[in-house]
Write a structure and sequence with these properties.
By secondary structure, this protein is an alpha/beta fold. The chain has 2 domains: 2-209, DHBP synthase, CATH 3.90.870.10; 227-314, Threonylcarbamoyl-AMP synthase, C-terminal domain (Rossmann fold, 3-Layer(aba) Sandwich), CATH 3.40.50. The protein contains 12 helices and 16 strands. It has helices spanning 6-14, 36-46, 64-67, 73-82, 99-102, 116-124, 145-152, 191-198, 205-209, 233-237, 271-286, 303-314, and strands at 2-3, 19-21, 28-32, 55-57, 68-69, 87-93, 107-111, 129-130, 158-160, 172-177, 180-185, 202-203, 227-230, 245-249, 263-266, 292-296. The strands form 2 sheets. Strands 1, 2, 3, 4, 5, 6, 7, 8, 9, 10, 11 and 12 form a 12-stranded mixed β-sheet that branches. Strands 13-16-14-15 form a 4-stranded parallel β-sheet. Helix 8 (191-198) links the parallel strand 11 and strand 12. The two termini are 37 Å apart. 43% of the residues are buried. Residues 211-215 have low confidence and may be disordered. The structure holds threonylcarbamoyladenylate (TXA) and magnesium ion. Residues 23, 25-26, 28, 52-55, 86, 88, 90, 102, 105, 107-109, 131-133, 170-171, 173, 184-185, 215-216 line the site of threonylcarbamoyladenylate.
Length: 318
């Protein structure tokens, strides 16, 4: 059920229930960070392996001390600059945070979402909320309440209506080693912005080489329709002339189109808009029983890097 009633959301959470939770990145499946019952329900609903840790959401900086300790200087600088916002910090966990949240790791992932309804809710509770993206394991993240309903409506999930997510891509995740900032997941804050705040940052091995570390599954964000993610659309299109496909390009459309049954979509060279619309577009296209979705590689900079990272994982073929 989709609703704007924040009091019902609050009651459900206080009773160890789960809700659909709006944020500026994607919608989450939220529960009380201190309730093992709530945490287990989230893993079960998502069909998510227990070795994949959850992100904790806080509404104000005082709540940070409830879940973490020993905050490095660069973490403080980043929090000051980007919170509330789509940046998740990996910090040493406090003893109150259960191993279920962190998958047994000594670090906890924390962020303060930049969404007024989410912040109002968090600030009305006396515990932070864990919230992974509100999609079954490995499928496309939801950027609207309707997407969440599509996935979990039949389980009677209460979904707090917070409008379309304005960023549309998950948060950037960074950790800290000695004086270094390490990027664990590309996200809605581009590398360039991190670097202007704290100097150069290092990509962890998985981001550099595509090697999969626990909790950062290679296959992810996938529609049911086969998705081809290609450097050159022109070459791929030749294989599909008579088929029922969708073609998505970042900028200009290739001239070769004589495919009447195809859906053609361009982001007009606008990265921010592409970031915001991408998942919604994939959700829509996935309902149309197409033979395939063909997407052109984005420029590898700014949000384009994040989009390419997601599409690479979503793709059936690269
Ligand atoms: O934008 C977002 O971050 C959204 C909204 C709802 O806040 N949440 C989200 O959560 O994307 P989820 O669960 O779909 O992705 C969380 C990622 C996973 O890849 C997980 O492995 C990683 O965060 N993560 C969580 N705790 C970690 C830790 N201690 N060390 C390394 N990675 C961690
Ligand atoms: Mg997710």
């Amino acid at each position: 059920m989709i609703s704007t009633n924040i009091d019902t959301a609050k009651q459900l959470l206080q009773n160890e229930g789960i809700i659909g939770f709006p944020t500026e990145t994607v919608y989450g499946l939220a529960g009380n960070v201190f309730s093992d019952k709530a945490i287990r329900s989230i893993f079960e609903m998502k069909n998510r392996p227990y070795n994949n840790p959850l992100i904790v959401h806080i509404g104000n900086i005082e709540q940070l001390d409830k879940v973490s300790q020993e905050i490095p200087l660069k973490a403080r600088i980043l929090a000051e600059q980007f919170w509330p916002g789509p940046l998740t910090l990996l910090l040493k966990k406090s003893s109150e945070v259960s191993d279920l949240v962190t998958a047994g790791q000594s670090t906890v992932a924390v962020r303060m979402p930049n969404h007024s309804l989410a912040l109002d809710l968090l600030n009305s509770l006396n515990f932070p909320l864990v919230a992974p993206s509100a999609n079954p394991y490995q499928s496309i993240s939801p950027t609207s309440a309707k997407h969440v309903e599509h996935y979990f409506g039949n389980q009677g999930l209460f979904i707090l209506e917070g409008g379309e997510s304005i960023n549309g891509l998950e948060s950037t995740i960074v950790g800290f080693e000695e004086d270094e900032v390490i990027v664990y997941r590309h996200g809605a804050i581009p590398l360039e912005e991190l670097e202007s705040a704290v100097g150069s940052v290092r990509l962890n091995e998985e981001q550099k080489n595509g090697i999969v570390s626990p909790g950062m599954a290679a296959k992810h964000y996938s529609p049911k329709t086969p998705l081809i993610f290609a450097d050159s659309l022109i070459k791929q299109i030749e294989h599909f002339e008579t088929k029922d496909i969708a073609v998505i390009c970042f900028d200009k459309l290739p001239k070769l189109f004589n495919m009447e049954s195809s859906i053609i979509y361009s982001f007009q060279g606008n990265l921010e808009n592409a970031a915001k619309r991408l998942y919604g577009l994939l959700h829509e296209l996935d309902d149309r029983n197409l033979e395939c979705i063909l997407i052109e590689k984005f420029p590898d900079q700014g949000l384009g890097r994040t989009i390419n990272d997601r599409l690479k994982r979503a793709a059936t073929l690269n």
